[in-house]
Write a structure and sequence with these properties.
With 108 residues, the chain is mainly α. It has two domains: 51 residues; 33 residues, no CATH class. Strands 1-2 form a two-stranded antiparallel ribbon. It is found in: Cytoplasm, Nucleoid.
Length: 108
């Protein structure tokens, strides 16, 4: 029971220290932002107006899926596979039959 109270007290102290560190970091960031605003002549009113006008922040969106050129072609059906993801059934069956995947490569 004693150890439990000691650990709880220790956790409270560490959490207070963590809160203090976060506050210090926050203060530094706020000072940097204010310095940038002053440097560029931007006021808080400008920021509020921009936000009200619907200016969106530039967020990094995930790049769209790119088309990948086919790497393998089935000689009879013309089906192709890019070499990415799961191999198509026709290629798996061919490999099980003893044919090499390289036999289906599309010449570059």
């Amino acid at each position: 029971m004693r150890n439990e109270h000691a650990l709880e007290d220790r956790i409270k102290r560490v959490n207070r220290q963590l809160d203090d560190l976060r506050a210090q970091k926050r203060d530094v960031v706020i000072r940097q932002i204010l310095a940038q605003l002053d440097k560029n002549g931007i006021t808080l009113k400008d920021l509020k107006e921009a936000r009200a006008a619907g200016m969106k922040s530039q967020s990094k969106s995930a790049p769209g899926k790119r088309m990948v050129a086919p790497k393998y072609r089935h000689p009879d059906t013309g089906e192709t596979w890019s070499g990415r993801g799961r191999a198509p059934r026709w290629l798996v069956a061919a490999e099980l039959g003893g044919t090499s995947r390289n036999d289906y490569l599309i010449p570059a």
